[in-house]
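User:
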Amino acid sequence: MKSDGRRQGIMDFLMDTGTASVDELASRFGVSKMTVHRDLDELEESGFLRKVRGGASIQPSGLFESDFRYRQKQAGEEKQRLAAAAVAMIEPGQTVIIDDGSTAGGIARHLADLRPLTVISNNLAVIQDLAGVGGITLIALGGQYSKKFHGFFGLLAEDTLRSLRADVAFLSSSAIHGASAFHQDQEVVHTKRLMMAAAARKYLLVDHGKFGRTALHFLTDLKAFDAVFTGCELGPQMREALDGAGVSLTLVEKD
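Assistant: Predicted structure:
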């Protein structure tokens, strides 16, 4: 197997397992441990995984955000509930911003019943879902495509956002610590902040597993959002911190 195919195979394997040891990968792909280390170095340098002692992981950390494909598989049922509940914040005829997150991105499949709408997004999954849908005016943010985040970022996306105004924006975040949102990537943070600045109302959609985590870059205080949607009851200390900071929390529990 050529190196490109093997590295893709490593990523596909990690999408299912989350972590893997060097020994496991060497055996699976029939190569030396040194070859595996070279593959992991290359994939880490490209931002697709992080090397850990004895192996590699695509699970998030304070410095590393997971690949979009892996995040789509996590807390799937809860994310679907959040997206279905959040569309109640939209009225026909409005302009809606949807960010690159896998949670906020789930809103796209619910928008047909609210047409006509204008939708602005840098999320390729959202763009693909809505392209050609009647009654949806789609504004796809330009910029440089990130395979890891499955979205578009950079100067073109940022300049476009500065020129637009929307009724409502839906965002996700990878980490909630206290009453603040954080993210591992500074370019993603910059784009999300511009989306917030462009919208009259702002909502954050985060599965409950994001609470109690932190990441390198501060995104915003949660009180900047009109409401924060999550899918499970939080611990008393977390809930107290949010209430004390004046955060409007919407709990979307199972029926």
